[in-house]
Amino acid sequence: MTLHATEPASASNEAVLDREETMSRDELEALQLKRLQDTVAYAYERVPLYKRKFDEAGVHPSDLEDLADLGKFPFTTKEDLRQEYPFGMFAVPQNEVARVHASSGTTGRPTVVGYTKQDLADWAKLVARCLRASGVRPGMKVHNAYGYGLFTGGLGAHAGAELLGCTVIPMSGGQTERQIQLIQDFEPDAILCTPTYLLTIADAMIHAGIDPASTSLKYAVLGAEPWTEEMRHELEATMNIKACDIYGLSEVMGPGVAGEAVETQDGSHIWEDHFRPEIIDAFNPVVGVDAVLGDGEHGELVFTSLTKEALPIVRYRTKDLTRLLPGTARPAHRRMGRITGRSDDMIILRGVNLFPSQIEEIALRIPELSPHFQLELTRPEGQRMDQMTVKIERRESVTPEQSSTAAQTLREQIKIHVGSSCEVAVVEPGTLERSSGKLRRIYDLRPKGQSGQAAPTDRS
Question: Are the beta carbons of 155 and 147 closer than 8 angstroms?
């Protein structure tokens, strides 16, 4: 079955966009419907899990007559992929699978995804589209600090940058001193990594006596974890760069599902010629066309692939919490609002729901406090209520007296804006764990069996 009818992106002329980037909304939705009908039928015919799920739900691919009908079909979850481990979700024979990737499996069986040669070509094209939108141009040197290997970030970003016509420096993650040396010696124009790891690099430069704003870097394309506008401002001011978001997850493709335009920096445009997004109520999901939330409403992001051959995915629940907004820099393609958190990273503290990104947003408005923080959850012996402690580093120039005032301010602001009380411990600079890729924010120290939320999941 052929799911593709696209023209290749031009890597030689930076002014030329993919044809699908310039479509009208009507043209794009017509393309979506055709590809969606093909994909749902393809998944039903080739993946036993989908035939079983569709039959149990009483729906058939022929029921999909318009885009809204997608809401009649059942969701796919990470648990489905784990139950079909390793290759049960694949829709093509093994000799047509050109590559496999997988999550780390730290919270259970890893999720395994596969790609045909065409899938890899599409992936590279969409990453190149994201990089170009974020300011990266053919001929630039790109320092890739995403991890290589089974994690999709490194190889996915690498292929897109090469297709765009860049010179790729395949550094991978970690070895921060080596990262800094190569940035100084090779003078790259752009860097690709997680936002917290770029912060780690900037801090290490400062401690080494290097001004992070003095490097050759002009652009940063950052993803793989939620980050706030406050973090963007911190990184841009510290490093004298333009920082844009790139979004993806392995179950849907990898990095490149959506990307942010440098001229607007107002959220990532979802490449809707390859993916159909929906928003649902994260905590009360119901199958049905009336259960899909409208654009602008906040909920859980759901994706259906439109062109994937090796692993088609139908209504995959990402657990990412956001909303869909009209397109701007690419008018036909809707944007994602900032991801406010993940439904499985939500902390329920004394009946109040909160996310690490809320703490980051508040803390970075307090000049004395750095972006480096951890959330520790405990339940003191003999008490029935959980306690959260925000451990956060002070900035280098801040005195102990100023730290005490900043801690009180943070406590008060969390109470006002989140609605729950917590403890704040301001610690010395450099004492908290630094990111070498994805950063762990939540440390659940409560006795086993008393946790109020799921452990953080791996998004690779």
Answer: no
CA dihedral 110, 129, 336, 275 (to 10 degrees): -60
State the Cα–Cα distance between residues 411 and 390, nearest whole angstrom: 9
The first and second tokens of residue 405, run together, are 């005032």
pTM: 0.86
Residues in the chain: 460
State both tokens at 37: 């009908």
The helix/strand count (H/E) of the chain reads as 10, 21
- Beta strand pairing call for 335-336 and 341-342: unpaired
Tokens of 178: 């080596």
Q: Which residues pair with 270 in a beta bridge?
A: 258
Q: Are 458 and 105 in contact (CB under 8 A)?
A: yes
440 pLDDT band, cuts 50/70/90, is confident
Query: Rounded to an integer, what distance in angstroms lies between the CA atom of residue 380 and that of residue 137?
Result: 54
Q: How many C-beta atoms lie closer than 10 Å to residue 295's C-beta?
A: 12
C-alpha to C-alpha distance for 441 and 254, rounded to whole angstroms = 22
In sequence order, what are the beta bridge partners of 401? none
Environment class of 328 (CB within 10 Å of its CB; exposed 0-12, middle 13-18, buried 19+)? middle
Strands 324-325, 387-394: pairing is unpaired
Share of the chain above pLDDT 70, in %: 93
Per DSSP, the residues of 390-423 read EEEEEPTT--HHHHHHHHHHHHHHHHHHT----E
Task: Give the closest residue to 149 by CA, choosing from 115, 99, 198, 192.
Answer: 99
At 198-217, the pLDDT tens digits run: 999 999 999 999 999 999 99
Q: Which of 257, 301, 1, 254 is nearest to 114 (CA)?
A: 254
Calculate the CA 381 to chain-centre distance. Answer: 37
Taking 80 as the threshold, does the pLDDT of residue 459 lie above it?
no
Cis ω for the linkage preceding 429 (within 30 of 0): no
